[in-house]
Inverse folding.
């Protein structure tokens, strides 16, 4: 619903939709927001009818009138029910993954319930915030500040969420306190954050639908994802450390003439804002220069020297220190005084850097070519494991790669491991508790390893001797102890 203090037709075009007669506007939401109009979503939910029916049933059987607005928010039995995960049929809490999180978190106050709903979304789950919140609440993970210098200033903002940023309002409050943002500027920051969080989600959906997603390319990519025939080209703005001003500079330079001929031509033509070592390294690792036929490893080895060289020339040119005759042609020859060495990283390293910059594997995947091995050893995909219909109490076998391993220690001094298990359809956090987990961490930390594990309904590794044998074979005979 679009709201305005003035007549809507003074600001936007409106029409009556043929199918149902509802009055709508031809402008999209961002345009309406730019015009200063307020958009609100009103959801019609079947659950509201269920609540009304239950209130009537209680009235007819007990004679008691229940006021939903006066329900106590500290009812112990309700929180015990939530902690057991007995929420099948409860709005937003009836999924298998959500019920597992409830059992891990064991909420005991209304703030926990608010955090639960906010955390169970693709963005926070991709950063493991949902599990970290539960583990910090139950004392299984140490509460660490986002930065030592900000621990005291942000205690008021992040104290109730165990040092984690969960709500957009927290992002806005931090931007105000740390960076001096106004409320309006802080709100804009959260809208940009939302777009970034959704990039990986949309890319996975394209893969599921059989649409080929092409890696970013400085010669072809625009700001956002764009169609290229039946394919989709990754947008430059989705690359880590590449901001909007950098993307604008690259696209403007490309449009002024034509495609960039090579790495040297790129550095020479783009504005100074693009010539940043961190930005250039991110573009290289994301594969954005692959159309130049330069190998990524070689570019990383020389990019700092190349950037230093071109920055010096551009500064001299801007200060008017070029000679009168042929300065630009002579300067261009100086942009490279180093040769790009031959040789490329192995596939594992290439994909690891690509995932670091883009949030997931784009050009290839470590599991491509071994799907049949995983299929023969696993009886459940991660997507199915995260589905709504997986029964509780069932032990399943899931195959994939282990990565991002973190060694943890409980308050009692017991060691355990938190790692990501990923297949071609998704990723999920797995907990491994065993006396030898220190060695597991050291073995797995060096890179993803293909494995098959058995998980219980709490997403913990099922403690069977056969599984421990499989992990020993994967990670080394001494990794899990005797």
């Amino acid at each position: 619903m679009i709201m305005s203090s003035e007549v809507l037709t003074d600001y936007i075009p409106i029409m009556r939709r043929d199918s149902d007669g509802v009055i709508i506007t031809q402008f999209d939401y961002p345009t309406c927001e730019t015009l200063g109009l307020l958009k609100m979503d009103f959801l019609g939910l079947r659950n509201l009818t269920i609540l009304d029916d239950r209130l009537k049933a209680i009235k007819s059987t007990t004679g008691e009138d229940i006021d939903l607005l006066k329900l106590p928010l500290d009812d112990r039995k309700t929180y015990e029910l939530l902690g057991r995960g007995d929420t099948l049929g409860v709005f937003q809490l009836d999924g298998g993954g959500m019920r597992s999180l409830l059992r891990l978190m064991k909420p005991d106050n209304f703030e926990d319930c608010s955090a639960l709903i906010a955390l169970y979304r693709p963005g926070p789950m991709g950063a493991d915030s949902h599990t970290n919140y539960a583990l910090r609440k139950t004392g299984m993970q140490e509460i660490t500040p986002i930065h030592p210098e900000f621990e005291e200033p942000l205690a008021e903002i992040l104290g109730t969420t165990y040092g984690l940023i969960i709500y957009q309002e927290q992002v806005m409050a931090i931007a105000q306190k740390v960076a001096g943002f106004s409320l309006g500027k802080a709100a804009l920051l959260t809208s940009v954050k939302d777009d970034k969080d959704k990039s990986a989600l949309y890319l996975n959906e394209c893969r599921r639908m059989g649409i080929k997603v092409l890696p970013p390319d400085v010669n072809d990519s625009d700001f956002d994802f764009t169609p290229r025939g039946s394919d989709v080209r990754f947008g430059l703005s989705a690359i880590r450390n590449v901001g909007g001003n950098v993307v604008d500079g690259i696209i403007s330079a490309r449009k002024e003439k034509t495609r960039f001929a090579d790495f040297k031509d790129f550095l020479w033509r783009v504005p100074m804002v693009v010539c940043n070592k961190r930005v250039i390294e991110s573009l290289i690792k994301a594969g954005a220069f692959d159309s130049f036929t330069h190998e990524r490893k070689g570019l990383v080895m020389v990019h700092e020297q190349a950037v230093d060289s071109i920055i010096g020339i551009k500064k001299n040119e801007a200060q008017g220190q070029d000679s009168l005759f042929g300065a630009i042609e002579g300067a261009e020859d100086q942009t490279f005084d180093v040769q790009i060495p031959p040789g490329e990283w192995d596939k594992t390293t290439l994909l690891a850097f690509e995932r670091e910059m883009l949030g997931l594997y784009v050009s290839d995947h470590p599991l491509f070519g071994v799907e049949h091995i995983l299929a023969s050893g696993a009886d459940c995909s991660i997507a199915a494991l995260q589905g709504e219909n997986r029964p509780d109490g069932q032990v399943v076998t899931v195959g994939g790669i282990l990565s991002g391993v973190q060694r943890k220690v409980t308050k009692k001094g017991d060691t355990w491991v938190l790692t990501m298990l990923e297949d071609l359809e998704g990723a999920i956090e797995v907990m491994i508790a065993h006396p030898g987990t220190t060695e597991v961490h050291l073995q797995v930390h060096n890179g993803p390893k293909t494995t098959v594990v058995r998980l219980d309904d709490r997403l913990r590794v099922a403690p069977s001797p056969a599984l421990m044998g499989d992990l020993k074979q994967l990670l080394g005979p001494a990794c899990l102890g005797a």
Notes: The longest strand covers residues 396-409.
